[in-house]
């Protein structure tokens, strides 16, 4: 498969995922937490292709999410969060084969890191909508939501990434 075709498929996947997340899944919000499908795409990329590829996919996915309406925050916060999640979860993948429980742990850790970095950058930048008590309420809900949605999203996206190009051998 050519590089241009792989790039097109990943781009379409990211756009469709973010469109679903901000349009349909936003209706399932609990105290501001929604299932983070975009984050799960980044984690799936990390599980299949490793930290470098996942960091790139994470940055691009986060940037699209930063710019997607109804964005009400400083652009770049999700890009930074997803870049870090992609890289760190990709490093965890290098440690060996990942089981189902291991995948759930990686998703929980990735959701915690991503949401925490997003909240902390909001606090540092002084964005009024973010405060410590809100972050402490939303982060556990986001982690739980992402872990619950994982069996529906991760296997499909992992299969897609494997079809695009075989996993790297470490």
Would you give an account of this structure?
It is a single chain. With 170 residues, the chain is mainly α. It has helices spanning 3-23, 37-49, 51-67, 77-93, 100-125, 132-164. The protein has one domain (3-164): Arp2/3 complex 21 kDa subunit ARPC3 (Orthogonal Bundle). It has six helices and no strands. 38% of the residues are buried.
Describe the protein's topology:
Elements: H1 3-23, H2 37-49, H3 51-67, H4 77-93, H5 100-125, H6 132-164
Helix pairs in contact: 1-3, 2-3, 2-4, 2-5, 2-6, 3-4, 4-5, 5-6
The DSSP helix count reads: 6
Q: Share of helix among residues? A: over 70%
Series of H and E elements: HHHHHH
The total strand number stands at 0
Strand content: under 5%
Quick synopsis:
The chain has 170 residues and is mostly helical. Helix content is 75%, strand content 0%.
Name the descriptors.
Arp2/3 complex 21 kDa subunit ARPC3; single chain; mainly alpha; 6 helices; 170 residues
